[in-house]
C-alpha cells in the first residue's frame, strides 16, 4: 500500500493540477481520481473545464461549428492518451463512474457525435495516436486512428508514386471515424471503399481487452469495417492494403450552368458514368454561382473527373462515351495521384505538405444528408433540383453526386457492413453550410425541402443513406434506457440494410451492456 501511494502520487498531482481540480470529494472527481491512479504517464493529459487549454483542445478538431456554441453540451473531461493502457484506463474509469465515452479521431462527424452527448460524458481524443507506417515492399500500411487521411496520403506519397489508398476526398478527415464508417473517394470506382482494404486492426473493447483480427474473430472484424465507430470499442490502429496507382493521372473540370445545357449533360452523365471504365471516376458538384449577368445568380453543375492515365488516352475515351460533355485538353491537367487529392479538395496542388495541415479548411456550421440513386432522374426533375439552389439559404450549399459502378458493383452487399453496392448510379451528398447562427433555421429548412424533393428519385423500397454522413433526422436511440431493435431499425436499415441484423448480433456479443453508445450506435438485444 505504501509503495502504491508513493508511486501514484506524482501522477495524481500531475492530472489534478492539469485538470485544475482540487481534492475535495465530488462525484465527478472520483473519475479523475480513478484515472490518476491508473494512468502512470504524465504525457497523457486530462483536461477539464477549469483548465485554460480545455476550450482549445475541445475545439481543435471540431469541423462542424454548429456543435461548438455556448449551449452545446460539453464533456466533463477530455483525455488525450498516448498509450494503449491509458485507453484501457479511460474505459475502466468511465464505466465505473457513470460517464458515457465519446471517441474522437478527426472530429469530422457531421452530427458532432464524437464530442457531444446529452448525458454526462467524457471525450477520448486520439489526437496523439497518429503514426503512419508505410511498407511499400508488402504494399501495406499501419495507420493509427488519430491520423488524418492527408497524413496517410502524404506518408504513402513520400515513399512511392505508384501506390495509393482509396479513401475520402477531404484531407483533414480522421482515419478512426472514416474507416469505421466506410470511406468513399476518387479511387472508389477502381478499388471500392477504404474499409474494403482493412486487413487487420487493433482495438480495445468495453472490458479493456486489446484485440487484433485474430483475437477479435471474424464477426467483430467484419463489424468494425463500416458498421460505425463508437459502437464496438476504440479502434487504435488499422492495417490497410495499399493499391497501385500510375505515376501520372489526369484530372478535369467542366462547368456548365443552367443556361449552358447543364441539365441535358447531367441527364446523359447519370446514364453512363457508372458504366465508364473503372479507371475513370466522375462526379458532379451542384452549387449556386454568379451569373454572367451582373448581380444575378445561376446554378452550376461542375463535372469533375479523375482518370488513372494520361490526357491522350482520356480525351478519345470521353469523346467516344460522353461527347456531350465537350471535354477539351485545356480542361485537363496531369499530376500525381497525391496531387489529385488536393485538386478534388479544391486546394492548390503544390506544395503537397498542405496535406499535413489539419486546419487548412474553413470551419463552418453544416447539415448533411445522403441518397443513393438507382434510376436516372428526368431532365425536368434535375432542373427542378438545380432551381432549388436559387432559393434563400443556399449561398454555401453544395451537392456532390459521385458515380458508383465499377468495383463498387462487384463487391457483395454483405462483404462488410456498408451495403450500397450493385445497381447504384451515384451517391448524392447534400451539404448546406452557414456562417451566422441566425441562418441555421433557414438553411436546415431548405435542406429538409431538398431531401423531400429528392424522395421521388432516391432508392425506392428503402431510402438508403450513408452512415459516414450521419443524419440524426433519420432516428436516434433513446437518450436514457433501452432502444429496441425495431426502433433502431428505422435508421439502421437505411445505413446498413440487411447487415443491420448481423451488426446487432455482434454488438450483443461484444458489448451486451451497451457501454459504447451514442445517438446512432447499434443497440444490443436484451438478454433473455
Ligand atoms: P470523428 O472523430 O468525429 O468520429 C466520427 C465517428 O466515429 C464518431 O461516432 C466517433 O465516436 C467514431 N470514432 C472516431 N474514431 C474512432 C475510433 N478510433 N474507434 C471507434 N470509433 C471512432 N466521407 C467519405 O466517405 N468520403 C469523403 O470524401 C468525405 N469527405 C468529408 C468532408 C468533410 C469536410 C466532412 C466533415 C466529412 C467528410 N466525410 C467523407 C465523412 C467522414 O468520413 C465521416 O464524418 C467520418 O466519420 C469522420 O471521421 P473522423 O475521425 O474525422 O470523425
UniProtKB/TrEMBL annotation:
Highest taxon of the lineage: Eukaryota
Membrane is among the record's keywords: no
Secretion signal span: 1-20
Keyword hit for Secreted: yes
Alphabetic keyword roster: Cell wall, Disulfide bond, FAD, Flavoprotein, Glycoprotein, Nucleotide-binding, Oxidoreductase, Secreted, Signal
Main localization (coarse): secreted
Cofactor requirements of the protein: FAD
Subcellular localization, as worded in the UniProt entry: Secreted, Cell wall
UniProt cross-references to InterPro entries, sorted A to Z: BBE, FAD-bd_PCMH, FAD-bd_PCMH-like_sf, FAD-bd_PCMH_sub1, FAD-bd_PCMH_sub2, Oxid_FAD_bind_N, Oxy_OxRdtase_FAD_BS
One Pfam entry name: FAD_binding_4
Residue intervals of the FAD-binding PCMH-type domain: 71-245
Record-annotated membrane-spanning stretches: none
Molecular function via GO: FAD binding; oxidoreductase activity
Family, as annotated: Belongs to the oxygen-dependent FAD-linked oxidoreductase family.
Protein name: FAD-binding PCMH-type domain-containing protein
Amino acid at each position: 500500500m505504501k509503495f502504491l501511494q508513493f508511486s501514484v502520487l506524482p501522477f495524481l498531482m500531475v492530472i489534478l493540477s492539469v485538470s485544475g481540480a482540487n481534492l475535495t470529494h465530488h462525484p465527478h472527481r472520483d473519475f479523475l481520481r480513478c484515472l490518476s491512479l491508473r494512468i502512470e504517464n504524465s504525457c497523457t493529459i486530462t483536461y477539464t473545464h477549469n483548465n485554460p487549454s480545455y476550450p482549445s483542445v475541445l475545439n481543435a478538431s471540431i469541423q462542424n461549428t454548429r456543435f461548438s456554441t455556448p449551449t452545446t453540451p460539453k464533456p466533463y473531461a477530455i483525455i488525450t492518451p498516448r498509450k494503449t493502457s491509458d485507453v484501457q484506463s479511460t474505459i475502466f474509469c468511465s464505466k465505473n463512474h457513470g460517464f458515457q465515452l465519446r471517441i474522437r479521431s478527426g472530429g469530422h462527424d457531421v452530427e458532432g457525435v464524437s464530442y457531444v452527448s446529452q448525458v454526462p460524458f467524457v471525450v477520448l481524443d486520439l489526437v496523439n495516436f497518429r503514426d503512419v507506417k508505410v511498407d511499400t515492399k508488402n504494399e501495406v500500411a499501419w495507420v493509427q486512428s488519430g491520423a488524418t487521411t492527408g497524413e496517410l496520403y502524404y506518408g504513402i506519397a513520400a515513399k512511392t508514386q505508384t501506390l495509393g489508398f482509396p479513401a475520402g476526398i477531404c484531407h483533414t478527415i480522421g482515419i478512426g471515424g472514416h474507416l469505421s464508417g466506410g470511406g468513399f473517394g476518387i479511387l472508389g470506382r477502381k478499388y471500392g471503399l477504404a474499409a474494403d482494404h482493412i486487413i487487420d486492426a487493433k482495438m480495445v473493447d468495453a472490458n479493456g481487452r486489446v484485440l487484433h483480427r485474430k483475437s477479435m474473430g471474424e464477426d467483430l472484424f467484419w463489424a468494425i469495417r463500416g458498421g460505425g465507430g463508437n459502437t464496438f470499442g476504440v479502434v487504435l490502429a488499422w492495417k490497410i492494403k495499399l493499391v497501385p496507382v500510375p505515376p501520372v493521372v489526369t484530372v478535369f473540370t467542366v462547368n456548365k450552368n443552367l443556361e449552358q445545357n447543364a441539365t441535358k449533360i447531367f441527364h446523359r452523365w447519370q446514364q453512363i458514368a457508372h458504366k465508364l471504365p473503372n479507371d475513370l471516376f466522375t462526379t458532379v458538384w451542384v452549387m449556386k454561382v454568379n451569373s454572367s449577368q451582373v448581380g444575378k445568380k445561376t446554378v452550376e453543375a461542375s463535372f469533375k473527373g479523375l482518370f488513372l492515365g494520361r490526357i491522350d488516352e482520356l480525351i478519345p475515351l470521353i469523346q467516344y462515351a460522353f461527347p456531350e460533355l465537350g471535354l477539351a485538353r485545356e480542361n485537363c491537367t496531369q499530376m500525381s495521384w497525391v496531387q489529385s487529392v488536393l485538386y478534388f479538395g479544391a486546394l492548390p496542388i503544390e506544395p503537397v505538405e498542405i496535406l499535413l495541415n489539419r486546419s487548412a479548411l474553413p470551419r463552418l456550421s453544416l447539415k448533411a444528408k445522403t441518397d443513393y440513386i438507382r434510376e436516372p432522374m428526368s431532365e425536368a426533375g434535375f432542373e427542378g433540383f438545380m432551381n432549388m439552389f436559387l432559393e434563400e439559404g443556399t449561398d454555401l450549399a453544395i451537392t456532390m453526386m459521385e458515380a458508383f459502378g465499377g468495383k463498387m458493383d462487384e463487391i457483395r452487399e454483405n462483404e462488410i457492413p456498408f451495403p450500397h453496392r450493385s445497381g447504384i448510379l451515384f451517391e448524392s451528398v447534400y451539404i448546406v453550410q452557414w456562417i451566422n447562427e441566425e441562418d441555421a433555421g433557414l438553411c436546415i429548412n431548405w435542406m429538409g425541402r431538398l431531401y423531400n424533393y429528392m424522395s421521388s428519385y432516391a432508392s425506392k423500397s428503402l431510402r438508403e443513406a450513408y452512415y459516414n454522413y450521419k443524419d440524426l433526422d433519420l432516428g436516434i436511440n433513446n437518450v436514457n434506457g433501452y432502444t429496441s431493435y425495431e426502433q433502431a431499425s428505422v435508421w439502421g436499415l437505411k445505413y446498413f440494410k440487411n447487415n443491420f441484423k448481423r451488426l446487432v448480433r455482434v454488438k450483443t456479443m461484444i458489448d451486451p451492456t451497451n457501454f459504447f453508445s451514442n445517438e446512432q450506435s447499434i443497440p444490443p438485444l436484451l438478454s433473455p
